[in-house]
C-alpha cells in the first residue's frame, strides 16, 4: 500500500509526522551551527572536522528525506526479491546442499540469496531513474536544494543531457536532435538509426 502512494504525498505525510514528532522538517542543518566546508558533503565534513553536534544535527535533518525516498524503493526491491528468492531456493544445487547437511539458514544465505540478488539488482536498476526524480520532489519539499539547483541551472542553460539525467525514469530513451554538416537538425534514435 505504501508503494502505491506517490512520492509527493508520501513526503508530505512524513513531514507532517516529523513535525508532530519534533523532527526537523526544512533545511539541512540547525540554525546557528557552522557548516565545516572541506569537501562540500555535510556529513563527511562534520566527521573530518570532529564536529559531533553538527553531525548529529545533519543526521536528524536527513532522517525524513531518507525515509521518504527509501521506504517506497525498499518495498519495490522487496517485491522483486521475493519471487527471485523463491526461484533460487527451488534450484537443484540448493536442494543437494540441503541433502548434504547444510542448514536452511546456510543454504539461504550462502546459495539462494546471492543468486536472487543478482537477478534483483538487474531488475531494480530501473528504479534508479525513479529515485532521482523522486529525490527532486523530496528536495523541493524539504528545502534541500541539491538536484533542484542543478536542474534549474540546466533548464536555464538548455543543457539537455543534464535535464534528461535528472528527470529520466528509464522507460524509454527519447530521440536526440543532432545538427548535420549543413546545420540541419536530424533525429537519431537511441539505437543510432536516423529517423529524419
Q: What topology emerges from the helices and strands here?
A:
Layout: H1 7-20, H2 42-49, H3 52-89, H4 92-99, H5 104-124, H6 127-142, H7 147-157, H8 160-167, E1 176-179, E2 185-188
Helix pairs in contact: 1-3, 1-6, 2-3, 3-5, 3-6, 4-5, 7-8
Give a nutshell description of this structure.
The protein is mainly alpha-helical and 196 residues long. The protein has 8 helices and 2 strands.
Question: Would you give an account of this structure?
Answer:
It is extended and about 65 Å long. Helix content is 63%, strand content 4%. It is mainly α. The longest helix has 38 residues, at 52-89. It has a two-stranded antiparallel sheet with strand order 1-2. The protein has helices at 7-20, 42-49, 52-89, 92-99, 104-124, 127-142, 147-157, 160-167, and strands spanning 176-179, 185-188. It is built from eight helices and two strands, in the order ααααααααββ.
Total DSSP helices: 8
Element string (H = helix, E = strand): HHHHHHHHEE
Q: Helicity range of the residues?
A: 55-70%
Q: Walk across the major sheet and give the strand order.
A: 1-2
Low-confidence stretches: 170-180, 184-188
User: Helices and strands: which structural class?
Assistant: mainly alpha
* Intertermini distance: 45 Å
Q: What is the global morphology?
A: extended
The description of the largest β-sheet is: 2 strands, antiparallel
Instruction: Output mean pLDDT.
Output: 76
Strand content: under 5%
CA radius of gyration is 23 Å
Give the number of DSSP strands: 2
Oligomer: single chain
